[in-house]
Design brief:
about 425 residues, alpha+beta, 3-stranded antiparallel beta sheet, about 40% helix
Length: about 425
Amino acid sequence: MAEVKTSENQKSGLPENQKSRLPKNRSQDFRKSDANKNYINNNDFNNTDSSNIHQSIYPVYPTVQEQQPPDGGIDRIDRIDGRNAIEIYQDIIKTNIEYDALCTSYDPERVTEILELILETMCSSRKTIRIGGDDLPAEVVKGRFVNLAKGYSEFLGIKMRLRQKKGKTVVQSRVSEKAVKRIKTEAKQKIKEIARPSKGKTEAQAILNYNAFVMGEHNYYQMATGVVVDFRVIGYQVGKTVNRLGDRVKREPKGNIGGAVVEKYGTSNMLRYIKHLPLAPISYVQTKAPMCKKRSVQKYTPEGRKEIHENLGINTVMLQTLMRQKLYGRSAEYADNRLSLYCAQYGKCAVTGEMIEALDDIHCHHKLPRHRGGKDNYQNLVIIREAVHILIHATTQPTIDRYLATLNLNKKQIAKVNKLRVEAWNLPIAA
């Protein structure tokens, strides 16, 4: 272990130019150390500098302390049971981020670099650490790194932590206390507006506003694994306010009622009605996994980038060819919208739905012809095959019959052709 010299005025135990970084001479393998070169002073363990280590971290071990050996030697990095503080934090962080599992899924060197950055943060003696342009208290930042498996970490109204389940580490998420309090307050206020609508609003408008609020909260927080428990608590408090509406609240509606609220909450026995309008039950919500992309889809590895291109569903080679194709006598707006439509239609014909394989077969049709005032805007253009384009503008029956036989269109496709023919000021094709 390399010795780290400090002056008497240095409170962090590291040189000024290394206060936020690890010692320069330290090996990348933090597990290797030399116990013979470190001085142990057990009396100093009770003098941990609270500015360096957050008190909620468990176990609480000093990182760097000033120590004055009896023989007048220099300061050393503390060692506890043969291990220094860096090694202790390394083990804690490796466990929390599942270091071994990450190394099997991602580049081990990259994962190690991230681990070293976390260790630098944990060993920093600064009172604040800048993240995303904001100076956050060092205790908060360090606590997030080491308390992933012990305490909750809050993000956008949802608090999360790691826990063991059937031999695996899974995420347990709940609605944060702050969000629960906000939902209770807003829901009660909206119930009161139903009881006594404000000036200019009706009871029906207040009910619709409440239902929209409840459905919006459910759609967002249903990703939390413990959302059922949290909204049950919310529903108990809000239910007391709903009871103040008295006989206005009914268990059965007056007649047949449909709509989004009934479709979503119709199976719940907590659904209530006020006159002919349903009142969404705020307690009725179940956990639903968020619809998100696969974890393997990312831009940092060749495999992830390959999946991005595959998920596009577009012939990227053809798209690049279209981008390089020179269009004489056409506007820049036309060229841009043609590319946008090709992507939006996934390279398929708008009438037949087939993938267009050849460059010459890709035609960008003006729904309203330019000679009749049609523009090059996105709404007036559509990507179709060459044969379909000819059929749309054909005016003689032999030409129409020939291309109908070539394309072999069904009734739905013929209806699309007729719609485009009418927009182009041509007569529809007889079915």
